[in-house]
């Protein structure tokens, strides 16, 4: 097994995840099988109970793992399927060590951070690195490990020690470290000077911690000057070819191309002796095609000027990472359609009547965004805050025939809105949001634990069956006439009340997709509408650059006015619509 560690210094949040994902993509284009592991030093078992406005989106895997959002980057870039074990936290490691101690696994010895915790970390990495991640079911050739946070954080110390030991375990020529460091411009903007001292300090810190980086990835606003590269190399005792510049680009999809231009693959091949790994001819061909498709799509965006605006209505818009998979799914759809997407972030609370009293300017700004956007997207979430604003946006999209997509809670609120304003059901509501309502259109799932929050929702990939008589469905048409069942990832505690289905369908709300038993509602759609679709699942989790989510693609295409064209193209297996149209 070959390992590539991506660590960070100076400050966090400078793009380690994108650099790790881009490195994995480049390795995969050479025919190698690549897997990824994210280490998060926080004590939580997983990200499931963490606030989206603090930590960002909770990403869900097929097996129901609630993960750090960087796992989404890995899957999107590498077209892989990861598991809950590909995200390591301090909580998971200590939980395992304590359980082992309770059953006498350590034979009465005093359990310590070194060697017991550090050995548990190494064992976990080695075990998970061997898990197959694609259709070949073969053991991966390379494992990309991203260490969250920055070297020097107190909670990272056991992981740093464990990885330094893993380097010796792996042996010479099987381990490479890329250290990501920020190179600031002082003062910012033209005329500023690129400062190398933070990077020098970061390399000194990581070496004192027991690791010796092989490559430095320098994050910077502008391309690194030759003198800056030379100074970093000299002061860090490295060759200039070991200093890689990752400056700001128009989209993150250009980062792999930026790294490829600087011969990252050549450097890794030499350091890891990658030429010795046998690669089947079909995997080599797939890699070449994958890279060509990636470059074509990324470059095509530089020449696109037609913009489609989407009002993203949510309650966590203060931190855009809370909806990172949603925004990426919209980007994937726009790339397929050869359009640009303009996401207008709308705090759903600003659409409510109370907002007019407290902040008229925010109220009018929010409603202007919704009313002028080409499409309205209502995202998921928990709690009552902002839910009334979401329902108002749904009413507007339905009555004004504006393309609409509701995801998870967005779908549930669309059901309540329809029950109230079209079906004429008295006082419909949700057990979560409106406990005192006379008729609950949305109810608590009976098998879910009401008391315990962590890991107790309906999680992971579950099947959805298209119902008879729904061949007219615009969403279903994007899967092709032969597809009767799909699999999508879920994360929810509440569902549509089965007792209310009959009344809603009589009023014109069609439940296009249900679970295999026909009891759990998965997809709603209105027939006489350009695009009014709600999904209980989270289609954004399975959207990929080269294979966009059908729900997001259909929604975006409807907003862009090219839904028929896109439906024909995708059923022909085309990577994108014809650019000449």
How would you describe this structure to a colleague?
With 581 residues, the chain is α/β, with parallel strands linked by helices. The chain has 2 domains: 2-41 and 71-290, P-loop containing nucleotide triphosphate hydrolases (Rossmann fold), CATH 3.40.50; 306-571, Class I glutamine amidotransferase (GATase) domain (Rossmann fold, 3-Layer(aba) Sandwich), CATH 3.40.50. The strands form 5 sheets. It has a 9-stranded mixed beta sheet, sandwiched between helices. A 7-stranded parallel beta sheet has the order 5-2-6-1-7-10-11, with helices on both faces. Helix 1 (16-28) packs parallel to helix 3, helix 4 packs across helix 5 and helix 19 runs antiparallel to helix 20 (563-571). The mean pLDDT is 93.
Blueprint of the fold:
Elements: E1 2-8, H1 16-28, E2 34-40, H2 52-55, E3 59-60, E4 66-67, H3 70-78, E5 87-89, H4 90-102, H5 113-129, E6 142-147, H6 157-170, E7 175-182, E8 185-186, E9 193-194, H7 197-208, E10 215-220, H8 226-235, E11 243-247, H9 255-261, H10 264-272, H11 281-300, E12 307-314, H12 324-337, E13 340-347, H13 353-358, H14 360-372, E14 375-378, H15 387-399, E15 404-407, H16 409-421, E16 428-430, E17 439-444, E18 458-466, H17 474-477, E19 485-492, E20 494-496, H18 501-506, E21 509-514, E22 521-526, E23 532-535, H19 550-560, H20 563-571
Parallel strand pairs: 1-6, 1-7, 2-5, 2-6, 7-10, 10-11, 12-13, 12-14, 14-15, 15-23, 16-17
Antiparallel strand pairs: 3-4, 8-9, 17-20, 18-19, 18-21, 21-22, 22-23
Helix pairs in contact: 1-3, 1-9, 4-5, 5-6, 12-19, 15-16, 19-20
């Amino acid at each position: 097994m070959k390992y590539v560690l991506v660590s960070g210094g100076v400050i966090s949040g400078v793009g380690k995840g994108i650099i790790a994902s881009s490195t994995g993509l480049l390795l995969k284009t050479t025919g190698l099988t690549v897997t990824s592991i994210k280490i998060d030093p926080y004590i939580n078992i997983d990200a499931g109970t963490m606030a989206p406005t603090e930590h960002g989106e909770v990403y869900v895997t097929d097996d129901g793992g609630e993960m750090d959002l960087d796992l989404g980057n890995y899957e999107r870039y590498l077209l892989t399927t990861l598991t809950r074990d590909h995200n390591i936290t301090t909580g998971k490691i200590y939980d395992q060590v304590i359980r082992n101690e309770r059953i006498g696994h350590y034979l009465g010895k005093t359990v310590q951070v070194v060697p017991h915790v550090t050995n548990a970390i190494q064992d976990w990495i080695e075990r998970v690195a061997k898990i197959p991640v694609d259709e070949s079911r073969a053991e991966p050739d390379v494992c990309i490990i991203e260490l969250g946070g920055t070297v020097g954080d107190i909670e990272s110390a056991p992981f740093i020690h464990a990885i330094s030991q893993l380097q010796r375990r792996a042996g010479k020529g099987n381990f490479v470290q890329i250290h990501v460091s920020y190179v600031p411009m002082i003062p910012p903007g033209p005329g500023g000077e690129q400062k190398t001292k933070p990077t020098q300090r970061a390399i000194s810190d990581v070496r004192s911690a027991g690791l010796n980086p092989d490559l430095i990835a320098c994050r910077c606003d502008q391309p690194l000057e030759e003198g800056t590269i030379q100074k970093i190399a000299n002061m860090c005792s490295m060759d200039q070819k070991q200093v890689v510049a990752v400056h700001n680009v128009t989209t993150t999809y250009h980062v792999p191309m930026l790294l490829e231009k600087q011969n990252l693959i050549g450097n890794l091949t030499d350091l890891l002796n990658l030429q010795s790994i046998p690669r089947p001819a079909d995997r080599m061909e797939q890699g070449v095609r994958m890279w060509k498709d990636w470059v074509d799509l990324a470059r095509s965006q530089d020449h696109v000027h037609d913009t489609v605006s989407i009002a993203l209505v949510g309650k966590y818009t203060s931190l855009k990472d809370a909806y990172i998979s949603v925004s990426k799914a919209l980007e994937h759809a726009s790339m397929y359609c050869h359009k640009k997407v303009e996401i207008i972030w709308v705090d759903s609370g600003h659409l409510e009547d109370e907002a007019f009293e407290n902040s008229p300017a925010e109220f009018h700004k929010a409603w202007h965004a919704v009313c002028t956007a080409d499409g309205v997207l209502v995202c998921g979430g928990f709690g009552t805050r902002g839910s009334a604003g979401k329902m108002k946006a749904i009413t507007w999209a339905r009555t004004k025939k504006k393309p609409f997509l509701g995801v998870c809670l967005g779908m549930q609120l669309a059901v309540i809105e329809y029950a109230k304003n079209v079906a004429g059901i008295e006082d419909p509501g949700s057990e979560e949001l409106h406990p005192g309502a006379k008729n609950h259109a949305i109810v608590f799932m009976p098998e879910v634990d009401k008391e315990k929050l962590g890991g107790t929702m309906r999680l992971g990939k579950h099947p959805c069956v298209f119902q008879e008589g729904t061949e007219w469905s615009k969403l279903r048409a994007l899967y092709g006439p032969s597809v009767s069942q799909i699999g999508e990832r879920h994360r929810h505690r509440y569902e549509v009340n089965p007792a209310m289905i009959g009344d809603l369908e009589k009023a014109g709300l069609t439940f296009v997709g249900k679970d295999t038993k026909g009891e759990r509602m998965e997809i709603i759609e209105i027939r006489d509408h350009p695009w009014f679709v709600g999904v209980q699942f989270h289609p954004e989790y399975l959207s990929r650059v080269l294979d966009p989510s059908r729900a997001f693609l259909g929604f975006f295409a409807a907003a862009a006015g090219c839904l028929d064209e896109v439906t024909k193209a995708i059923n022909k297996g085309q990577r994108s619509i014809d650019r000449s149209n």
